[in-house]
Design a protein that fits this description.
Layout: H1 4-11, E1 16-19, H2 26-33, E2 38-41, E3 51-55, E4 58-66, H3 67-75, H4 95-106, E5 109-115, E6 118-120, E7 125-128, E8 131-136, H5 137-149, E9 153-157, H6 160-177
Parallel strand pairs: 1-2, 4-5, 5-9
Antiparallel strand pairs: 1-3, 3-4, 6-7, 7-8
Helix pairs in contact: 2-6
């Protein structure tokens, strides 16, 4: 696994490092349109995350989820975990929990960028892309609150352009205010 100092050194050469295991990467294109410098690199030496950046010696990992993927990674099949997993103690984590836990193991700070529209039906179910998920809104909201209390910064965005704008803006805000 890539070491913290190696990651900081790599991240200090660019505004954002974006996972490049896919040929097309709309978030990288949107970040470039926002005027950011972007390095597309296979981040797989790191345990999780789609985007990384740093401020000083602080590393920040970003996991990007579309509304429907957020719901699926929250309610999908449990992943096998080691008995030493501090979150589930081997019982198996949901994919979202597993991803965020692994990001905290590697990055100093974690952002969950939620892209796209999702809402609640009158019956209290989550709706994404005009489809009822048959999952209760409160359950997802409570899961997001749990991770917020653990330090995840979540950033909602209407689309990929807005997500890129939020990340560029947040990075600038962190630098101006010395937030970390």
């Amino acid at each position: 696994m890539i070491q913290h100092d190696e990651l900081v050194a790599a991240l200090q050469t660019t505004d954002f490092m974006v996972e490049s295991h896919k040929q097309e990467n709309p978030i990288a294109d949107s970040l470039l349109k926002q005027g950011a410098t972007v390095v597309r690199q296979n981040l797989r030496p790191t345990p999780a995350g789609d985007i990384a950046f740093c401020y000083g010696q602080h590393t920040i990992g970003v996991e990007r989820k579309h509304g429907s993927d957020l719901v699926q990674s929250w309610v999908g099949a449990r992943l096998k975990c080691a008995k030493t997993c501090p979150y589930c103690e081997g019982a198996g984590c949901q994919r979202l929990d597993n991803q965020l836990y692994r990001m905290f193991a590697h990055y100093d700070h974690v952002i969950l960028a939620i892209v796209g529209w999702f809402g609640m039906t009158p019956q209290g179910y989550i709706i994404t892309n005009s489809r009822d998920s048959h999952r209760l809104w409160d359950g997802l909201w409570n899961a997001l609150y749990k991770w917020q209390r653990r330090g995840v910064i979540w950033q909602p965005a209407t689309d990929m352009t807005h997500a890129a704008h939020r990340l560029v803006s947040l990075r600038g805000y962190i630098e101006r205010t010395d937030l970390l």
